[in-house]
Amino acid sequence: MSKLDQEVCRKGTCSAKWNAHHLRQIPDDAIPLWVADMDFPVPPQVTEAIRKRTEHEIFGYSLVRDCYRDSIVGWMERRHNWQLEPNWIIAVPGVVPAINLAINTFSETGDGVLIQPPVYPPFSSSVLNSQRTLVTNPLVLRGNKYYIDFADFEQKIIDHQVKIFVLCSPHNPVGRVWTKEELQQMGEICLKHNVLVVSDEIHHDLAFSGHRHLPFTAVDERFAENTIILTAPSKTFNMAGLQASNAIIPDSALRENFSKAASSWGLAKVNTLGLVATEAAYRHGDQWLDQVLDYLQGNMEFVRDFLARRLPRVKLVEPEGLFLLWLDFRGLNLSVEQQEELLVHRACLWLIQGHSFGQEGAGFARLNSACPRPLLQQAMEQLEEALR
Predict the structure, then answer these.
(1) Model confidence at 2: pLDDT above 90
(2) How many other CB atoms are there within 10 angstroms of residue 117's CB atom?
(3) How far is 160 from 33, CA to CA, in rounded Å?
(4) Chain mean pLDDT for the chain
(5) Among 227, 258, 284, where does a domain finish?
(6) pTM
(7) How far is residue 386's CA from residue 342's CA, in Å, rounded to a whole number?
């Protein structure tokens, strides 16, 4: 038995995943497979680095030191063959605040901002809350895989005078790890029409065997002039609560404007323990991540096999990465309300309903598979029982 099979009780720890049932009107016994954090302990080197730092007993404002940036540079070179300069890195408290910051800094009220639904819900809310015009280039599901409609992509940019494209790479929730050719084509179109690319690459380390994540500016050096890449150790190492992320901006003018805006928005400071944990994870987390990736791929294969053998009317959209599985319930012909009744009250499972990712997600649901396999098996058996 893998040590990752061992369940760690998170109840009573102020966990949003495990302790927020009453806030969302979810039954207390529903298995929480919704929000995107793992039920696995962080690498031991991260725990030790935090423990050592807390012994100091003073937690004032912290500086982002050279060693912090160097740890990121080393990780990106080892894991992604991506050469970046330390001064490109700006530490920020989170990817979603950075998306909002970029939209408000590099566009004006009413400007078009393009996204690709079904996609992470804060993308659309960031655009609408900023009083920008939401422009969508829906992904196209063909067979068991999503594709980009490039003709629609470019035409939407032209028709709506789009200023910013918010890219999700790898894509949450459909699990695509975009190919070099796909990224190249999107980048060429954005360069042609002077569109700023804000690339959310928070899941960049979570590609399955046979697939490789490419940082957007690593595809073509020309893309560096109009790209902001957002990364974080939070999904990779299960550290979302430590509030540490990074904006990687090669272009000096973009970087200066982003940095000034971050200071004025109060987003220039990062959690002290987040800085410590990030450096430790990027310096020492390779072996831990390799083990977790193997386990996550095993979980995905378990769900795929379970559905094929025992629940053939529910389909798994084949993921190329992430630990978030996109399940297709359209074969059941349920309304949104009926699907919620099935999952929450009959199967006693807390997933994220697909319509929250945009109207294109209706009939789907997102399941977080980053949990011990016995718990995942229990969840699938509960779903099977509910469908009998």
Answers:
(1) no
(2) 20
(3) 37
(4) 97
(5) 284
(6) 0.97
(7) 7
